[in-house]
Amino acid sequence: MGTAPINLTAALASFDAIYSPRIVARMNDYDVRIAHAQGEHVWHVHQDTDEFFLVLEGRFDIALRNDDGTEHTVALSQGDTFVVPKGTTHKPSSPGGSILMFEPSGTLTTGDDFTGEIPENVDRTVGHELG
């Protein structure tokens, strides 16, 4: 990572892959990642870390599964933020948009555990370097 500023609009325009985050900065032991979102992700959980989302454009929904098995969805629009608490099973989806996330470096996009098949539009990764 360099010392030059990163323009998020330009960074998002530099790739088209869906649910395939790019690392735009590192801060302490965290990655700042951006991603395009469209379609369904996979139900997954991060046992040891919260997950921060900021919607940069479009809409981004996060279905959450409670301990009793019930589910509810948090609908986010441009400018909205939301934190999925550690240990919470969740499934992102989007009709189209882009997001910014804060996650500890090395965090897999599909969490520590996931349910079902990983859709073709989901990249199981710890993030890719920008550029």
Structure description:
A hairpin with a 5-residue loop joins β4 (51-65) and β5 (71-77). The chain is mainly β and 131 residues long. The model has no long low-confidence stretch (mean pLDDT 95). The protein starts with 7 loop residues before the first helix and ends with a strand. It contains one helix and nine strands; from the N terminus they run αβββββββββ. It has a single domain (21-119), classed as Jelly Rolls, CATH 2.60.120. The chain has one helix at residues 8-13, and strands spanning 22-27, 30-40, 43-45, 51-65, 71-77, 81-84, 89-104, 113-115, 128-129.
Summarize the structure.
The chain has 131 residues and is mainly beta.
Element layout with pairings:
Elements: H1 8-13, E1 22-27, E2 30-40, E3 43-45, E4 51-65, E5 71-77, E6 81-84, E7 89-104, E8 113-115, E9 128-129
